[in-house]
Amino acid sequence: MKRSLSLSLITLVATGSALLGGCTETSSSPASAPSVVPEAAANQAAEAPRANAPRPQLAKTATMQLAVQDVPTAVRSAQAIVNREQGDILQQTESSGDSPSATLQARIPADRLETAIAAFRALGRVDTVNVQAEDVARQLTDLQARLTNLERTERALQSILDRATKVEDVLKVTERLSSTREQIEQLKAEQLNLRTRVAYSTITLQFQSQILGETALPAFAPELETAWRQSSQSVLLLIRSLLVAGVWIVAYSPLFLLLIGGGYGLLRYQQRSTTTSSDRRDQPPQQPQA
Q1: What residue intervals traverse the membrane (predicted)?
Q2: Contact 215, 125 (CB under 8 A)
């Protein structure tokens, strides 16, 4: 009996110690939690501006200048590329003569612009390529906010119009409601235009006939083209500097002539004076007559 009581007491003491240890660990664990919470809060605060920032909405425009052997053939090939990339021809002009040329403006889906530019490069020698992007996300956000406010105003005016009984009040509210709806339509048109610019990129192609006998630099050595252009510019700058120096020389030529003439006259005068004095010394003295 005593042995069973002692065993029971030992079991109770062990159980109590285990419970106390668990409570101690539980009470000590929250103390370490606050050290992790501020770090997570700081990360969330840093990521909040990025999450609230509007996603970029890029409206891209591109221009290309190409020199081709046959302008009409290149234009037809460009039209085929636009159709293949699910685009539309917006404008096309062609001129014939000794130096035929053409301009083609097309609208292409934004995600296919790079593919289309790569295809256009194969039509001839590419002289210039320019791609520009404009972020219109802020404009779209502002338009949406203005639309929301105007639509709220429209609903309020419609509610007032439904309750109006006087003819004068009906006319005033109707006029205000018509003006509000007109502003809403204008903003929706601007919003649609911006979204279309984001979804479709505009590219302008300028074709010029390549001059016969014109030698283009190899495509595998673009640094030669850069060196040629820089050297040509240096020669032009040298010629211009020489011309400017010649103009200055011509402008100051009268002064130079006066200085040269004065110096030459002074030199001649000194030479004559020296010759006269030497002649006088060389002459024998004259004897007096008897």
Answers
A1: 242-267
A2: no
Q: Dihedral of the CA atoms 247, 252, 253, 255 (nearest 10)?
A: 180
Distance CA 149, CA 158 (A): 14
Average pLDDT, rounded, for the chain = 79
Q: Give CB contacts under 8 A, 24+ apart, made by 72-77.
A: 72/100, 72/102, 74/102, 74/123, 74/124, 74/207, 75/102, 75/104, 75/207, 77/123
Q: In this predicted structure, what is the pLDDT of residue 290?
A: 46
pTM: 0.52
125-135 and 58-68 strand pairing: antiparallel
Domain boundaries of the chain, sorted by first residue? 59-135+201-209, 138-198
- Say how far apart CA 202 and CA 62 lie, in whole Å: 6
Token couple for 187: 């903003």
Closest CA to 191 of 151, 140, 232: 140
Contacts 24+ apart (CB under 8 A), 149-152: 150/180, 150/183, 150/184, 150/187, 151/184
Contact indicator for 206, 67 with CB cutoff of 8 Å? no
Q: pLDDT tens digits, residue range 226-255?
A: 777 788 888 888 998 999 888 888 888 888
Place of tokens 């509610």: 159
> 181 near 154, Cβ under 8 Å?
yes
Query: What CATH fold (topology level) applies to the domain 59-135+201-209?
Result: Alpha-Beta Plaits (3.30.70)
For 4-17, how does the pLDDT look when each residue is reduced to its tens digit (9 = 90+)?
Answer: 434 344 444 444 44
